[in-house]
Structures are given as C-alpha cells and as structure tokens.
Amino acid sequence: MHLNSRFRTLAAFTAPYPLTAWLAVGFLLLHTGLRGVLMAQTWHAAQLSFASAAAVLGTGLAFDLVVLALALPALLLLESALGTRKPAGRGRRGLVLAVAALGLFALGFGVMAEWFFWDEFGVRFNFIAVDYLVYTREVVGNIRESFPVGTLLGTLAVATLALAWASRGWLLRAAHPAAKRSARVAVWLTSVAVSAGLASVWSMDARNGANEYQKELSANGLYSLAYAFGNNEIDYFDFYATRPQTAAAPPAVLPRIVSATPPKNVVIITLESMSSSYTAHGGNTQGLTPNLDRLAEQGLFLANLRSTGNRTVRGLEALSLAIPPLPGHSIIWRKHNQNLETLGAVLADHGYVNRFMYGGYARFDNMDAYFAGNHYQPIDRGQFPERHRGFGNIWGVADEHLYDYALEQMDRDAASGKPFLMHLMTTSNHTPFTFPEGRIDLPRGRQGAVKYSDYAVGRFIEMARAKPWFKDTVFVVVADHCASSKGRTSLPPENYHIPAIVYSPAHLAPHTDTRLASQIDIVPTVLDLLGLPEHTNFMGRSMLHAYPDTGRAFIATYQKLGYLTPDQLVVLSPGRQIEDWRLDAQQDIAAPVRQPDTLVARAIGAYQDTARRARDGLLQHVNLPDGLRMR
User: Fold this and answer.
1) Where are the beta strands (DSSP E) in 34-152?
2) What is the b/e burial string over 305-321, where b = at least 16 CB atoms within 10 angstroms of the residue's CB?
3) Is 206 exposed, middle or buried (0-12, 13-18, 19+ CB in 10 A)?
C-alpha cells in the first residue's frame, strides 16, 4: 500500500506534465545505461568491485537527478508554451510529438557523443570538449571521417520517432494541460528555487570513487561539460597552495657550447600523439617506429622525457616558452600572449628566420595568432602550394606533404644566408588515422598512422641529409603529448612518456640519457648546443649538463599540476589541496609520503614562480643589446 501510494503521488505530479516526465525518464534511462556500458568497458582498468560499482551507480544517479533538476525550469516552460486551455488542433498535437522526438534525439545524440569521447580520452566531457566546440569544422569533419555518421544518426532518428509515436497517447496530453495556470506557475517557481539551490550547493566534489576512473564514471557528462565552461580560467594564487615569496635565484650562466663548431639551423619536428610506448625503446615489439628507433641510436636520445600535458597546445607551449604548465588554458590561448620570451624571440635577436608550419589550419587552438605574435611566421595548409596539397583529411595534409614544403622553405632560407628555425607540427597520427596508400604495410587505423608518421619522418631526414645545410643543422624530434591520458590516477606518469631525440651528427655523439626530463628542457638544450650566451626566462634546463639530482618533470591536466621525480609524485589541486605519493619501480602509486616533505615545497615553488612570472609580465621578451647579438 505504501509503495502504491508513492506511485500514485508520482503519477499525480507527472500527469499534468507528460512531456517533461517523458523526457526525464528518457534522460535517466539513457545516462544510467551509458554509465553501465562505460563501467563494463572499464571494469578491470577502474578496479571495480560489486560494492564500488554500486557506489558509482548511486552517485551517478544523484548527478543525473541534479542535472535533471537544473534543466527542469526550462522543460516546464517549454511544455507550458506548447499547451493550450482550448482543445488542441492537429497542428499543435503534431508540434508536441515533434518536440518530444527532437528532445529525445538530442539526448540520444549527447549520450552517443559522450561514449565516443570516453573511448578517445577516458573521461567525461571536459575542457577538451569545450575547446573542440569552438572548432566545429575540424571536429565535425573528424567525426564524419571517423565514424558511420549517417547510419548512426539514421538509426537514432528512427528509434526516437518510433518511441514518440508509441508514446503519443501520453504525450498528447501536453497539448491540452489538465492543471490550472496558477498551479503550473507555482510548480515552475518551485522548480526554479530547487534548481538555484542545487546549483549553489552541488559541485564536482560530489564525485565518488577510489580512483580517477571511478570518479569520472560517477559523474554526469553534461554537468562536467558545464563545469568546464565555467572553470576555464583558473588563477593559481586564488586556488592553489603557495609559500612565502623568496628572492629568485640568479639565472645560471651556462658554458658556451660542447662543440667547437656549433650547429647553425634548428628544425623541431613535433609529432602528433606519439607515445613512447609505440617505440621499440618504449617496449613495443611490433616494429611501428623503425626510423625513430634508428634516430634514437644515432643522436642524443632523451629516454625518460615527459610531456607537460595531454593537449597539442601544451606541447607547443613547452617547446616555445619552456615553462611549466599553468592551470586552466595554455598561454597559447590566453590574452596578452604576444612578444613573449619564446625560442623564436631569442633566435630572432640573432638574425634567424623563424617559421612555424602546421599541416592543418593554424587557427585551430589559436596557433596562428600565438606564433605570429612571437617572432615566428606561421604557415598552414591553406598557404601550401597546390603541388603540396596531396592526400589529406579534415585535420591536415599527410605528413609527407608538410615535410616536402618545409624542405623547399628551408632551401630558400639557407640560400638567403640567414640561419633558420623551422618548427613543424604534424597531423597524420590523429583520428581518423588516414594516410596515402602504398607507404607502409599496415591498414589505416591508429597503428597504421603511427607507422606512417614514422615513415614520413625517416623520409624527411633522408631527404634533408642530401641538402648542403644539413651538416649545420640540429634536428629535434619530439611528441606533443601521448596518444591517451586514460589512467586510474589523475596524473598517470606513464601517459606522459614521449620520445625525444636531438639529432645533429656533426655536433652530437650518439648518447642515451636516462635521467627524468621535461618537455620544457628542449629549448635550453637547443640554445646550449647553439652556444648562445644570453640569460633568458626559460625555466627548463639543458640536458647537456650534469645536475645533482636524478631528474624531474612537470605533468598536468587542466586543473591538476604534477611534479614528478623517479620515485615520487606531488600533485597540486584547486582548494589548495596537496597530494604526495611515493612511487614504485613502475612509477605506480605505492603509498603516501610522510609530511613535511621538501619535494612539496619544490613543487609549489616551481608552479608559483611560473604563475608569478605570467601575472607580472615577466615572460615578456626583452631585446638583446646590439653588443650581444650574433654577428
């Protein structure tokens, strides 16, 4: 009887709002179903048990109900607009069914999109999804080239139309509502109050789980997306742990060079999504990267280098500015990001011609504005001549076309008598993982794209070897980030391990450096190799020198800032939270570190100093006096 009375109460409440109730049930079923599928898909990786799965489902349902409550005022208002106190005609009834079908289709599309997003990134919608919404051309094109969009959307459309038609007896009540207007207004005002209350007290902190996978599973994708929209600018000093400001140590004066005849030109090749795990040195036995593996044996191989983040803009930031990552957007995205102390700015002081060449459209991620404002000439696929616009997809031309046009540009720059910096950003190792036929022995797909990217690099180096400027050039081959950021912890160290090779046969003897290093160390290493004497704002350190420690790296997500050593990881989070973990030999979390700990102070100091420099304009480039310029 008690249960029946509850059902009667629920029916009495929902009967005057059939459309809202129908969409609410659809929302809950779809999102609970999605959560169940994702849990099954990641059961072992997330270390789920039946007890933890139940907790995840419970918290997830709470998140879903909160999102539903936040949307309730808009749904009720929509239903009120569709209803009329007079008997509804055929047109109004058709409009109700159409709105119901469109609403359910949108919910289904969102769940489908979230499944694909999880498959790619291992998280709910986050700041990556927010950034992708800005670049609809590339994102929509990527989806169309990667998935059977027509089949998926057609199936979804048929299913939603069928469900709406099957439910028409219930839905058509919305065209002629039973409740009085005063009662509907009272219900709507109540929904607004509830929505406002939940918005003020509910937060992402309500996620539940023993690891990052479980926390993500317990959340709701729409809530996560809205949260990312509202938290894309994060002031370090307002949200992160700080320590008393001390006088900064004077910059170290590096020795001139290690070679009597330093190289003159610089070529940086940034490989899209090239995890170290794809290479033989990273343990891969499938032979996906024979050219990178060979280059690693012939140059300075930084065998234990970590990317600063899991986005291309973070890699480009580290490889131009050489600073640890700040929370929120990369500096490439921020205001006041021009005339900074980049590698290009320093080399421009010495008469270099600097170019940034991208196989895609450089407006993506604000690359064109950033590099143009920092002493580089950006060149993207829109400026490639027709002869270098062969095979391509929505993300960019095939890597071989990028390299071929770069060789032409470098020939012209060398002929002018000026030294050059050429920074290349590839695109082929990215969904939809397509590339020209007949190049490698693997079909199109992720592994094929990795092997094709390696093929194109090897081809480029061999073609460059025949150029007269080759002997005077240092080549840096490094990834922007790993192929995946999925992991049980928020900052899994293995998912930041990228290949990095400094190759200049005439100036660097083959050597493998196993010290832990950061992407921000590339720029100081290059400058050290070039023998440039000036002090800079760069916060990395040259890998051509010995240091009193075994190395360190900066790894980060959008909000979590990590300071990694071979046996320890400090993580700084909003709310001035600090995690301090001892790592085992595989760099998995083993146990918390007893406090106080000097490494925590070091981590806070590094990130706080970066934030201070950015806030106070200390990342700006200061032109060298004429007496220090290269002659």
Assistant:
1) none
2) bbbbbbbbbbbbbbbbb
3) middle
Coil, helix or strand for 281?
Answer: coil
**Torsion, CA 103, CA 106, CA 110, CA 115, rounded to 10:** 100
Under a CB-based contact definition with an 8 Å cutoff, are residues 217 and 60 in contact?
yes
For the chain, the straight-line distance linking the first and the last C-alpha, in angstroms and rounded, comes to 94
Residue 5, CB-side half-sphere exposure with 13 Å CA sphere: 2
265-628 belongs to which CATH class? alpha beta
Other beta carbons within 10 angstroms of residue 543's beta carbon come to 24
| Tokens 């200061």 belong to residue | 622
SS3 581: strand
- Per DSSP, the three-state class of 582 is strand
The H helix count followed by the E strand count for the chain is 20, 15
Residue count of the chain: 631
CA-closest candidate to residue 418, choices 377, 385, 381: 377
User: Quick check: 423 and 357 in contact, CB under 8 A?
Assistant: yes
Highest mean pLDDT among 447-461, 488-502, 535-549: 447-461
Q: Dig out the tokens for 561 from the structure.
A: 């800032």
Asked whether 490 and 207 are in contact (CB, 8 A), the reply is: no
The DSSP letter of residue 232 is S
174 touches 103 (CB < 8 A)? no
Closest residue by Cα to residue 164 from 319, 22, 344, 323: 22
Residue with tokens 């009720």: 76
Q: How many CB atoms lie within 10 A of CB 205?
A: 9
Question: Count of CB atoms within 10 A of residue 227's CB?
Answer: 19
Residues 515-573: pLDDT tens digits?
A: 999 999 999 999 999 998 666 679 999 999 999 899 999 999 888 999 999 999 999 98
How far is the C-alpha of 313 from the C-alpha of 487, rounded, in Å? 21
Q: Look at residue 521 in the predicted model and tell me its pLDDT.
A: 97
User: Where are the CATH 3.40.720.10 domain residues in the chain?
Assistant: 265-628
User: pTM of the entire structure?
Assistant: 0.77
Q: What is the pLDDT of residue 10?
A: 47
